[in-house]
Design brief:
Number of strands: 7
Distance between the termini: 38 Å
Radius of gyration: 13 Å
CATH superfamily: STAS domain
Order of helices and strands: EEEHEEHEHEH
Number of helices: 4
CATH topology: Transcription Regulator spoIIAA
CATH architecture: 2-Layer Sandwich
Strand order of the largest sheet: 1-2-4-6-7
CATH class: Alpha Beta
Shape: globular
Helix content: 40-55%
Strand content: 15-25%
Number of domains: 1
Structural class: alpha/beta
């Protein structure tokens, strides 16, 4: 069994996925997204923050997995945000304009507060 690239901590209907690798591959992101989707479907988790503090690079293929996740999450009226993004990561989201779908925050707490209060 493979080890996830992120540690996921759940509290009620909220979860934070803290990535532990400097580079996230498409396969690693798919594995994390599968875990998050299971939490959404089985445990009624609606709000997710991806803590990217350790991540310096994500492959563009990761974006497809995240878009799939946000589409499924929309059916549950859930939300997702990213926190602690390094410049390379935030640039990828901004250049693809996905930062309008995946809001970027400096802190995990700010991200969670923003997505749970709207």
């Amino acid at each position: 069994m493979s080890t996830l690239a992120a540690e996921i901590e759940r509290t009620g209907n909220r979860a934070v996925a803290t990535f532990s690798t400097h580079e996230v591959t498409t396969m690693q992101m798919q594995e994390v997204v599968v875990e998050l989707m299971e939490m959404m479907r089985n445990d009624a988790v609606q709000y997710f923050v991806l803590d990217m503090n350790s991540v310096e690079f994500i492959s563009s293929g990761c974006l497809g997995s995240l878009v799939e996740f946000i589409q499924d999450l929309g059916h549950m009226r859930g939300k997702v945000a990213l926190a602690h993004c390094h410049d390379n990561v935030s640039f990828l989201f901004k250049v693809t304009r996905l930062d309008s779908i995946f809001p970027l925050f400096d802190e995990v707490e700010d991200a969670m507060k923003a997505i749970t209060s709207t």
